[in-house]
Design goal:
Layout (H helix, E strand, L loop, with lengths): L4 E5 L4 H12 L3 E6 L2 H11 L2 E4 L5 H15 L5 E4 L13 H26 L9 E5 L3 H4 L4 H20 L5 E7 L14 H8 L10 H11 L11 E4 L3 H4 L1
Parallel strand pairs: 1-2, 1-4, 2-3, 4-5, 5-6, 6-7
């Protein structure tokens, strides 16, 4: 199979890093994007991937990043993994202006970013055979997380819409919805032991997931074997949806 070009946003740490490592192991040429240059640089050195600093919520930076990928790795992009995102906790007592700021930040990071990246990559995506995978979350189905849950539910809707539009071109668009995953910066060091145990109690598997387990799901959805899988949400949460 011809060597593919893959772009992974939020590729410096956690799930994004694991996705990049898995795609490299499968023979893809990978470019990682993110906001923190030093983190990206270290990950790129360890994995042997290309990297560029880019905020995927900024249209100008998205366009520049896509142009760089095309110039550096090839004229066609085969795989886009929209992994970049993040959570901000919304205080129920926060005044409306503060709540609006949190809402805008969370929506931009988790929903606007995948939209902008996908639109920028689309003219250069392989037809047929292109693959887009969006990272949603169990929060989209559990409702936990306020604006974050709404944004990740929006990612599901975006996935469905893109799958419908791009399917005739031989491009598949799917989502992966992780549950509670260890070894990431998702909680920013703010998860208490009580909070950890409360989450584990909801998971029939009795343990958190690992970034490489999410990466394996992403790798399958980007593979030739998944050519007839389109518009699907692949849940990887140890049974959280059943345990809630």
């Amino acid at each position: 199979m011809q060597t593919r070009v893959a772009v992974v946003t939020g590729g410096g740490t956690g799930i994004g890093r694991a996705v990049a490592a898995t795609l490299v192991a499968r023979g893809d040429r990978v470019a990682i994007l993110g906001r923190r240059a030093e983190v990206l640089k270290e990950t790129a050195r360890e994995l042997g991937v290309a990297w560029r600093q880019a905020d995927v919520t900024r249209r100008d930076q998205v366009e520049a990043a896509v142009a760089w990928v095309l110039a550096d790795l090839g004229p066609t992009i085969d795989v886009l993994v929209n992994n970049a995102g993040g959570i901000r906790w919304l205080d129920g007592e926060a005044p409306l202006d503060a709540a609006e700021r949190v809402w805008d930040e969370v929506m931009d990071a988790n929903l606007k970013g995948p939209f902008l990246m996908s639109r920028a990559v689309l003219p250069h995506l392989r037809r047929p055979g292109g693959r887009i995978v969006n990272l949603s979350s169990v929060a989209a189905y559990s409702g936990r997380g306020g604006p974050y849950a709404a944004a990740k539910a929006g990612v599901v809707g975006l996935t469905y819409s893109m799958a419908l539009d791009l399917g005739p071109d031989g491009i598949t668009v799917n989502a992966v919805a992780p549950g509670f995953i260890d070894d990431t910066e998702f909680f920013g060091g703010g998860l208490t032991e009580a909070g950890r145990q409360e989450r584990l109690a909801r998971i029939p598997a009795g343990r958190p997931g690992r970034p490489d387990e999410i990466a394996a799901a992403v790798a399958y959805l980007t593979s030739p074997e998944a050519g007839y899988v389109n518009g699907e949400v692949h849940h990887v949460n140890g049974g959280w949806l059943f345990g809630r």
